Amino acid sequence: MKFPRATRLLVFVRTPEAAARVYRSVEKYLTQRLKLVVNHHKSRTCSTNGVEFLGCQFHGFGGQIRVSAANQAKFKRRVQEITRRNRGVPMSGRLTELGRYVRGWMGYFGLEHRKTMFRQLDKWLRRRIRACYWKSWRLAKTRLRKLRELGISRDEALNHSYSRKGPWRISASRAIQMALPIEWLTARGLLSLEDLWNQFAPNR
Fold first, then answer.
1. How confident is the model at residue 51 (pLDDT cuts 50, 70, 90)?
2. How far apart are CA 128 and CA 9, in angstroms?
3. How many independent structural domains does the chain possess?
4. Cα separation of 118 and 75, whole Å?
């Protein structure tokens, strides 16, 4: 067996005694047989609960896999980069790029056990996309026309189109959610993290 330099290993055992025994055995094999250097500052035996490894955290008995808070924040930052308005890319192009990123991200973190986390990210993602559409419409008269075309009453459309509220606050309003419902966003290419999570169910 050959390991490249800076390889990380994670070994699960049942008891602290077994962990100490396996640690000594693995260290001996790596140092004496493979002539590798073990970094003792980064090597340890511990409970699985709360351990972070390659972007995931392990929780509870058996080490349920969870996406770390840092990687959830990283996901949001990347989505914001893809969807920001000053890129000069139409919404269709941004949604296509976003779809590729979301599929890749879910391919890595699809073993996460909490469906609720993906539901919350989905809500945030839809709100972000609604805000992006609102920004892309720019002018009040364009917003008024778009809202009317999407079935919003004239009074509500006028109230929103000439509002001084920012895109993020507007995107949470009932009228915008009615104008840009989940089905409308899905038809334009927005993927659902929860749906993708369900597809990984056999792997979990």
1. low
2. 37
3. 2
4. 12
